[in-house]
Amino acid sequence: MFELIGIPPQALFGQLLLGLINGAFYAMLSLGLAVIFGMLNVINFTHGAQYMMGAFAAWLMLGILDVPFWASLVLAPILVGLFGVVLERVMLKRIYHLDHLYGFLLTFGLALVIEGLFQWKWGSSGAPYPNPIPGGYNLGFMFMPTYRGFVVLAALVICLATWYGIERTKLGAYLRAATENPTLVRAFGINVPRLITLTYGLGVGLAALAGVLAAPIQQVSALMGTNLVLVVFAVVVIGGMGSIMGSIVTGFGLGLIEGLTKVFYPPASNTVIFVVMALVLLIKPAGLFGQTK
Amino acid sequence: MVGQMMTPSQGMIVAAAVAVLALAAPWFAYPVFLMTALCFALFACAFNLLLGYAGLMSFGHAMFFGMAGYFYGHVVKAWDMPPELGLLAGVGGAALLGLVTGALAIRRQGIYFAMITLAFAQMVYFFCIQAPFTHGEDGLQGIVRKPLLGGLIPTKDDRVLYYVVLAIFLFGYGAIYRFIHSPFGQVLKAIRDNEQRALSLGYEADRYKLLAFVLSAALAGLAGATKAMVLQFATLTDVSAAMSGEVVLMALVGGLGTIIGPVIGAFIIITMQNYLAATGEFVLVIQGVIFVVIVMAFRKGVVGEFSEWWKARRSGPRERPAAAD
Amino acid sequence: MAETLLKVEGLQAWYGESHILHGVGFEIGRGELVTLLGRNGAGKTTTLKSVMGIVEKRTGSVTFEGKETVGQPSDSIARLGLAYCPEERGIFSSLNVEENLLLPPMVRPGGMSLGEIYQLFPNLQERRRSQGTKLSGGEQQMLAIGRILRTGANLLLLDEPTEGLAPVIVQRIGEIIRQLKGRGFTILLVEQNFHFAAAVADRHYIMEDGHVVDIMTAGDVKQNIGKLQAYLGV
Ligand SMILES: Nc1ncnc2c1ncn2[C@@H]1O[C@H](COP(=O)(O)OP(=O)(O)O)[C@@H](O)[C@H]1O
Ligand SMILES: [Mg+2]
Predict the structure, then answer these.
(1) Dist. CA C6–CA B223, nearest whole Å
(2) Ligand 1 centroid to C210 CA: how many Å?
(3) pLDDT tens for each residue of B162-205
(4) Cβ separation of A190 and C105 shorter than 8 Å?
(5) Nearest to A105 among B104, B110, B252 (CB)
(6) CATH number among 3.55.40, 2.40.128, 1.10.3470, 3.30.530, domain B2-324
(7) Pocket lining: C40 vs ligand 1, CB cutoff 6 Å
(8) Measured in whole angstroms, how far is the alpha carbon of residue B59 from the centre of its chain?
(9) Collapsed DSSP state (helix, strand, coil) of residue C34
(10) In the prediction, which pLDDT does B195 show?
(11) Residue A180 CA, ligand 1 centroid: distance in Å
């Protein structure tokens, strides 16, 4: 059937898998952005840099202390998340009362600083991270490298766990309530500033976790998150930031659309998400899952 | 603003001094540096028009600046047409691009507007990497300077070209000034301050915002095309997100929403880059640090902080007005 | 009067530049039910918010069980044992009824159990999986009251719990407030509906333009009904 339209199934499924993997990263990153924005009113421009820091943390720990991938998967997000906690305490919390734009500018500046420093120390060419689970399966219609399959599954689990944590737990109820009305939540005796710090740390940790997962697939480099975060902004505009499930679906969906574009019209593959954004702005400006406030 | 702090006669003196300085500058500073700075100053003013007077922060203005450079280069080099047409193509192309992206972006406000413009600029950037006429990573090089006005103005001499660029800058600056002080600009400010109220008075807010967006894009295009004319190349740097950030930084350093601030900010940043060019990625680190410091501590920028200090000095130490942002 | 639980002296409060409270003072003994009465805009809500520490700026003195609260953040104040039911009810739309009920953390031992609260408000139990803001106005008010009963707080600040509700529901809320008083809660009630207030309260403080201008005990109300009506503009 695929031969009919001139696309060998290997290529099609190969690209769809790549799309799914990209989508996994879009989903994880846009999820973090949305959670942070809900609580802090800040669009975290540093997200791409923190994703890069996650990958770097894993790479450095492997190189210096011989920490295996699976340990890094836990340690790196914690380390980078703690870095996020410090950032929030020292800087971000001083600007919540200002227009959203200032948070955007501040985190943009921080991204420049972080990425510049990493580039200065380790260059921008990138280093490989060894594949922790080499090999793969022949599925008949395509060859599936094990690690890539793992990434998609891991991302799904991470996204659903985040969804569960926010929609179904006590801490999640605090988060949702404080997103709506922080003053009242605080007047009930909840330490909202600490909750905000925690949220930022978790969002940043999520970005770092995505970075660790990306390390064996991509080159670990100072600028690996620079363009990614811009695409994720488009993803966030498309999905709207109101809904956790919406972020997940939008992220994976756009990855797939990108993969399909690579099959059918490769030159448009890195702009297609922006085209989708333009269409969504035309048809449903608040985003697919967003409410107009 | 600065104008309101001084008596008319003081204002005249300052204006005269600035005029003399502008005219004499190429005799004691590198003309190419001055021209580059003027291009960026115009770019920053165009950006600031949108932020300061329409309340819209574009984080994608590099797409107009950079694309206009490509348009200029393509018209002048590939099509071998006169530079005037190149400038026109830069302005027109940027305006058109502004019309399309602006019409979509103004459908959202605030932080979303910034993200959307940024995303569109990234799309333009990816397009430029692939499109043949931009020559990808190499850029459009060797756009030879041609004389202006059919041979009347020789532009090979940097000092002569400097006055041309100064004239272009003044034209753009004047256009912004006129625009802000026109009835149209007043409506725009009313929309910025209270969109609901302006809507209820019967103003179609979106049309005003779009016009401001297109004008801002066109002027950013004028700046970009002029820069390509001066430096004789157009590259990916000028359409990149980093460039979009740089113009925000210039306006921020100078003072958001002040009419002279972006000019001062542009000169500060360009001078800094000149001195730091050899340090490579540290330019970005330092720019990042400046962003952080300004947002944390000096949100009014050089002009805003200065005028506040000046006012405080005049009215005694007691009166320190509350933040106006 | 019983042992003083809350004492407010010289309380001033601001929203930005506007000075709203100009030295409010009153006190409440343990187990009492006291109301703040006054016209719209008199500063009753602002007084409650100032006690809770959620106005931008406040000065003066507010002591709870002898501890000064001015200068403390609102979460610390709440943990002393004060609970606030805001005028706009503040039901969270992203939480269901039960999540709304369980949101305020325990601040002291001795609060009511979830079962007791559902007994008091059977409607809430029926609708415990509904989105909080999907409830009727009356149910939302009950939810707003119900959720502060679990925490163990012994001083309840209720801001116009009967506002905009049908007479039967007002009556029901009146019964509930009396029951709560019977259980030993101390209550500071803001009301416009003075018939409702007169029926439940031990004492009334009358506010005008950010001051307390008069005090009446439950017994005074009958003789001073004309004066009270003049204050309230009814
Ligand atoms: N958020 C606010 N900002 C500015 N002024 C306010 C605000 N809330 C209330 N006010 C003003 O404070 C005064 C007292 O209001 P409030 O305490 O709500 O009165 P009451 O509850 O007695 O009706 C009113 O004049 C009101 O306009
Ligand atoms: Mg009130």
Answers:
(1) 66
(2) 10
(3) 999 999 999 999 999 999 999 988 888 888 888 888 888 888 88
(4) yes
(5) B252
(6) 1.10.3470
(7) yes
(8) 12
(9) strand
(10) 85
(11) 22
